[in-house]
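Reviewers of the previous submission asked for a worked example of the structure-prediction workflow described in the proposal, so we include one complete record here. The input consisted solely of the amino acid sequence. No template or homolog information was supplied to the procedure at any stage.
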Amino acid sequence: MATWYISPTGDDTNGDGSQTNPWKTLNKAYSSAADGDTIILMDGTYSGENIDPYSKDLTFRSQNPPSNGIWHAIIDGNNNFMHFRFGAPKSMTFDGVKFENIITEGSTGNHNLFAVGLYNPGKGTYTINLLNCMFQNITITVDNSYNAEALIGVNTNTSEYILDLTIDKCLFVDFKEAGSINNSHLITTRSEGSSGTWNILNSTFYFKETTKPIYSLFYVTSTNNVTTLIVKNCIFRNKGGSILYGNAAAISNTSASYTCFNNISNSPSGIGVINLDPLFVDEDSYDFNLSPSSPCIDTGVLI
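From that input alone, the workflow returned the following structure tokens.
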């Protein structure tokens, strides 16, 4: 298993992927890497790219982890469409990377930022790990009533497309919906008869959009789908009033604990679950530390 490097000042033609002579783009590193390899994103801002199809087991990691609210490796979609579209049952991990200014949309085939199931890539388990990442200024566009568009989604009616998802220590801010149909979500699957586990851990979600907020956070279209949803040690603060489930009956097994749901309809009960304003220090300035009077202080658990 090899480690490769990319840098905004790198060179895809003359670079060799080393730390001293890195490549420039995600696609160059992806095409050169093999299963099990790690791609290191050196500090700076990268232009948004599509990896289509994505058919390898890879880890994309920031060279320097985020600290004090600053992410050092940033992928900027420049308010355009962008996606990583799986072409086979593989694993994808992003660690310490910020994604910003990205649009997802369905009617022209761009679909989700992380997309599974399009063009029949094969039945099996698709694994997505988002660790220590930030997602900011994401627009989810829906103009086709058939599509349930999302940041992360399984877009197929075929059975046995399994999405195993882990979101851990991530920050999600400034999501909004665009288009003519109110059917946007954070995570969705349309796969019939499949299973999968979505672990949402130690993360903060702040959605301030009130005019066109995303419709729901988690959406499973089929009651034959046996997705398991685990939410622990999270804070959901939503000024727009989205709902937690787009189809509550289709998520067969939900476990929520030590989590704050604020202004989220049909949120579940559970050990340590509260439904209050978390009282961030200054959410308008994106300071999501908890104020001294926050009801969330000392209500989490080590996991």
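The radius of gyration is 19 Å. We consider this example representative of the routine output the project will generate in years two and three.
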